[in-house]
Amino acid sequence: QVQLVESGGGLVQAGGSLRLSCAASGRTFNNEDMGWYRQAPGKEREFVASISWSGGRTHYADSVKGRFTISRDNAKNSVYLQMNSLKPQDTAIYYCNTRPFRGDYWGQGTQVTVSS
Asked: How far is CA 58 from each of CA 29, 89, 93, 96, rounded to the nearest angstrom?
């Protein structure tokens, strides 16, 4: 059974930093592009960042460009999201998935709350 388990969320003040992790199990994702997505209260889930299977190409939503950095460690079957200069509008549940995403791969996500 494929599982993507997100961790690293928490409560942080505006301007602070968090590092999210996504650990995959059940199969290898080393040959797939991966992404981070988020869903804020009352809003639809949206794309945040993606990384190619080799790690050589990354792509970011305009709202996080210059503040967030996506990376991966294929030896650990894991993906990461370093979030700096956090803003209250970054408050959401953060999920990892393939890019494009697969509906049956959504995990529980990790809650990020940024206070002003």
From this structure: 16, 22, 21, 14
Q: What is the pLDDT along the chain (116 residues), one digit of tens a residue?
A: 899 999 999 999 999 999 999 999 999 999 999 999 999 999 999 999 999 999 999 999 999 999 999 999 999 999 999 999 999 999 999 999 999 999 999 999 999 999 99
For residues 59 and 63, what is the distance between their CA atoms, to the nearest angstrom? 12
DSSP annotation string for the chain: --EEEEE--EEEETT--EEEEEEEESS--TTS-EEEEEE-TTS--EEEEEE-TTS--EEE-TTTTTTEEEEEEGGGTEEEEEE-S--GGG-EEEEEEESS--GGG----EEEEEE-
Q: How far from each other are the two terminal CA atoms of the chain, in whole angstroms? A: 40
The full length of the chain comes to 116
